[in-house]
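Why run this: before we spend reagent on co-expression, it is cheaper to look at a predicted model of the complex and decide which construct boundaries make sense. The entries below are exactly what would go into the expression plan.
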Amino acid sequence: MTEVATRTIEVGGEPGYAVHVGPGALERLGEHARPGRRVLVVAQPGRDALVTATVTVLADAGAVPVVAEVPDAEAAKTAQVLVSLWARLGQEGFTRDDLVVGVGGGAVTDLAGFAAATWLRGVDSVLLPTSLLGVVDAAVGGKTGINTAEGKNLVGAFHPPRAVLCDPAWLAGMPRADYVSGLAEVLKAGFIADPVILDLVEADPVAAADPTADPALAVELVTRAVRVKADVVAADLREASLREILNYGHTFAHAVELVEDYRWRHGDAVAVGMVYVAELAHRAGLLDAALLGRHRTVLAAVGLPTAYPGPDRWHRLRAAMARDKKSRGSTLRLVVLEGLARPTRLVAPDESLLRAAYDAVR
Ligand SMILES: NC(=O)c1ccc[n+]([C@@H]2O[C@H](COP(=O)([O-])OP(=O)(O)OC[C@H]3O[C@@H](n4cnc5c(N)ncnc54)[C@H](O)[C@@H]3O)[C@@H](O)[C@H]2O)c1
Ligand SMILES: O=C(O)C(=O)C[C@@H](O)[C@H](O)[C@H](O)COP(=O)(O)O
Ligand SMILES: [Zn+2]
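The model came back. Tokens follow.
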């Protein structure tokens, strides 16, 4: 990826922090590495060059880094892996002065953030997202956690990082399917809050799906999506209400991920989840046919799935949807659109509508 100017997006809160996206972002890690500070670098497999560079920046600043490589993707987000990190933190004598750094995609930043949230009831974290989805969504906003056998992210904590650092060069080497998966969360930000994102992607979906094709476009999409997330989480960190809009498409998406035993990429599931909930909102009389169609068109244009075909899995999906964190008691609550960038909630929709929307995405 050719060099583009660094963008810094401030995330408000107590304390606030910055998301730095640009060449040389890693050097800023030195600001968090005082002499003698222990640092646990939680690393995704395959990120070896970046992990080595991370250790060098920390050590050059006098800190004492140790590396814990964890399994790839969702296999990292388990209680067993978390326990192994707690063991390491204990064995290395980590105190409240010390630091956890996450290097990898959203799975690792969720895990590393939760290890930081729980160790000694909370130590600092700095997140270095290496995936598109990680930088636009997972590393920003302080949601940390792991999965359980019953569902996605069912155990976690709100624990904002001290900084999020991403060099776009890290994203350039991503497998195409993983990069495209991240575009689902970018497009989500477009649907719920910033339609310019949709316009930019629709104008050149081929370039949008390739971080090396138009680096300026890639950074513009990242910056816009991060701004949407930053504004929302600054106003409602703990998801009392507004933050729920970031969960657009996720009620169905998380159910698909569970039923598929996490073989589906999160972003792919979110893409189908947005089509599902758009179908639902259309049937509930909230969303017009044109905006429903726009979901399918723009998602498909970048290569994201818009259907979840196969045998009838409705009963398992519906049971998983009941455990969605937006549910209250037995009442299902879904984020829906009643227009472009006009999110609202659909509460306890008729079961026949829920099923009909499923049939529409099969
Ligand atoms: N905390 C939040 O607010 C939040 C928001 C969105 C998603 N998430 C979570 O994030 C996870 C999804 O994140 P993801 O899409 O990054 O998945 P991931 O972390 O599983 O990474 C996907 C794949 O990309 C690979 N990869 C990552 N960076 C790479 C690079 N630079 N080069 C080559 N390969 C690379 C990984 O090794 C992995 O195989 C899910 O667990 C989801 O629940 C959390
Ligand atoms: O930050 C949020 O809030 C989100 O909902 C962002 C989602 O993209 C992300 O997948 C999040 O992890 C889902 O949270 P959950 O509370 O439904 O597990
Ligand atoms: Zn998500």
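The chain has a mean pLDDT of 97. The chain has two domains: 7-172, 176-210+213-360. Bring this page to Monday's planning discussion.
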